[in-house]
Specification:
Arc Repressor Mutant, subunit A; 2 domains
Length: 178
């Protein structure tokens, strides 16, 4: 990182390559479009390079790069007019109980989980990925998305409830709503 901050382009490229797969996964999860993902990642890389000297080290390099990538993706969504926010009232109405005898069997069906994640609002989906897939704590996830820790907690609770509802509804109901 220090070499990259001093203007070493190769060090910057190595740093980006180190985080590339995770940044790509995050961008794809937010945008759901490989072409937009590539464009957003290119823009995020440029933004990171331009702001590299101003990086104070208050957070991990990865957290900083995730934040830049996340905000760049949100900008793309806003431009595409595909950004839809689910209010907390709407999220609460989505909660339902699971009637499945073995919820573990439901969660292990990867394709259904992928589909359910894609149906979450972007601000919830990103937090599920950061906390549950990448293992970040709430504080770090809050830094990436730029919200207070309490907001991370409430958004994750809403996301878990929505995922539970989506994963436990009968298959025929999912097909009708898709």
């Amino acid at each position: 990182m220090s070499a990259a901050r001093r203007g070493d382009g190769e060090a910057f490229v190595r740093m980006l390559k180190h985080y590339d797969s995770r940044l790509r996964a995050l961008a794809f999860r937010v945008l759901r479009d490989p072409v937009l993902m590539d464009d957003a990642l290119q823009d995020a890389s440029i933004k990171a390079y331009q702001s590299l000297r101003g990086f104070r080290g208050d957070s991990e390099v990865g957290t900083w790069l995730y934040r830049i990538t996340y905000t760049t993706c949100l900008d793309y969504l806003r431009r595409e007019r595909r950004f839809q926010v689910l209010s907390s009232d709407e999220a609460l109405t989505e909660v339902s109980s699971c009637n499945d005898d073995d919820p573990c069997d439901v969660v292990t069906r990867w394709a259904e989980l992928e589909d359910a994640l894609d149906r979450l609002p972007v601000e919830q989906r990103v937090l599920v990925i950061l906390v549950h897939q990448y293992g970040y704590d709430y504080r770090t996830a809050a830094g990436v998305v730029g919200v207070p820790e309490g907001t991370v907690s409430s958004r994750l609770a809403a996301a878990r409830s929505r995922l539970r509802a989506l994963l436990c509804e009968p298959a025929y109901a999912r097909e009708k709503t898709s």
